[in-house]
Design brief:
globular; 12 helices; 349 residues; Rossmann fold; 4-stranded parallel sheet; binds adenosine monophosphate; binds magnesium ion; DHBP synthase; 10-stranded mixed sheet; alpha/beta
């Protein structure tokens, strides 16, 4: 049975206004109704758009997996309005989780803690832990509070595809598979949260993200570990670590020799999109003359690059290119999350 496209409700709420405008209150009310009857609502967060359902309703959460085509072995993150709600969902609240939540919530970090009895199996893929995050987005938190229930919300895209950073990306990827889209404008951070397992000692990062290891170590007052060297083996523990993920339809490669690669590819008749921060480089100027090369200037700082990355990949996927070429980012701590996403985007299926 063909379903209609979901309504998109504009729900922009300026950070400077304490209370949302009437139109936003109305959109939130509509979203709450959808969630109460077990429906799916795409919501803005500061990281990427999430596909939300009532986390305590296993049928509703099953709908998320169906809409995304997500394997049932991949647990989903549960979004909470505050620390009290998080604690009510955990069987234990480790000191590291407390320290991280106190320092960074609301914010782009997800803590993995022992799972409490209210959490359905499907949310954790049957595992003993649950991933919790309080998003730094007033609309998302207001919605959770108004619904009176935590929201399971993985990224609002088909499984393995590039995460959405606008309501339009959600519509393109999930269209008639969902019930409602709240359009809060583009996401500020633009890549998924840092995920940290607080059940191990020392705590361990399962997915690099906007918050660096150093900042997490400062918060917990001790060491924080990086994932094991072979992330693919970690699938069950943290599905964001599956090899292919975050991938555009157009094949993507990372190179430290863009000049050479692009010359070779263009000569072979390929149309190339090139993500580069080196726009004043003479090589870039020389290559710019080619009709088969689309140069996409990217911010030179990691946070700026991350904020633009997914929107750029979504846009280039519309351009009928043969290849996306990306300059290899610096091998430094602050670029780790961007390198992680690009590496997974570059894995061929
Ligand atoms: P996404 O598909 O972008 O929502 O990503 C979901 C992320 O949640 C995965 O990459 C995992 O790292 C994380 N996750 C969710 N639940 C758990 C859990 N119980 N244990 C470990 N990681 C989890
Ligand atoms: Mg995702």
């Amino acid at each position: 049975m063909a379903r209609p496209l979901p309504p998109i409700r504009r729900a922009v709420w300026s950070a400077t206004a304490a209370e949302p405008p009437a139109a936003v209150v109305d959109a939130i009310d509509t979203a709450v109704e959808v969630l109460r009857r077990g429906g799916l609502v795409a919501i803005p967060t500061e990281t990427v758009y999430g596909l939300a359902a009532d986390a305590l309703d296993d049928e509703a959460v099953a709908g998320i997996f169906r809409a995304k085509g997500r394997p049932s072995t991949n647990p989903v993150i549960v979004h909470v309005a505050d620390v009290a709600m998080a604690r009510s969902l955990a069987a234990a609240w480790p000191a590291a989780a407390e320290a991280i939540a106190a320092r960074f919530w609301p914010g782009p970090v997800t803590v993995v803690v022992p799972r409490g009895p209210r959490i359905p199996d499907i949310v954790t893929a049957g595992g003993p832990t649950v991933a919790l995050r309080c998003p730094d987005h007033p609309l998302a938190r207001r919605l959770i509070a108004a619904a009176g229930t935590p929201l399971a919300a993985p990224s609002a895209n088909r499984s393995e595809a590039v995460s959405p950073t606008t309501a339009h990306h959600v519509l393109e990827s999930l269209g008639n598979r969902i019930d409602l889209i709240l359009d809060g404008g583009p996401c500020a951070t633009g890549i998924e949260s840092t995920v940290i397992d607080c059940t191990s000692s020392p705590p361990r990062i399962l997915r690099p993200g906007p918050l660096t290891r150093e900042s997490l170590e400062t918060a917990v007052g001790g060491p924080v570990e990086w994932p094991a060297a072979a992330p693919v083996a970690e699938t069950a523990r943290s599905p964001g670590q599956r090899a292919r993920h975050y991938a555009p339809t157009t094949s993507l490669e990372i190179t430290s020799d863009a000049g050479g690669r692009i010359a070779t590819l263009v000569e072979a008749g390929n149309r190339i999109g090139w993500l580069t921060s080196r726009t004043d480089d003479p090589e870039v100027r020389r290559l710019a003359a080619s009709r088969d090369l689309l140069i996409v200037p990217m911010p030179a700082d990691a946070a700026g690059f991350a904020a633009r990355l997914y929107a750029t990949l979504h846009a280039l996927d519309q351009r009928q290119l043969d290849r996306i070429v990306v300059d290899e980012p610096p091998d430094t701590e602050e670029w780790r999350a961007v390198r992680d996403r690009l590496t997974r985007a570059a894995v061929t299926p």
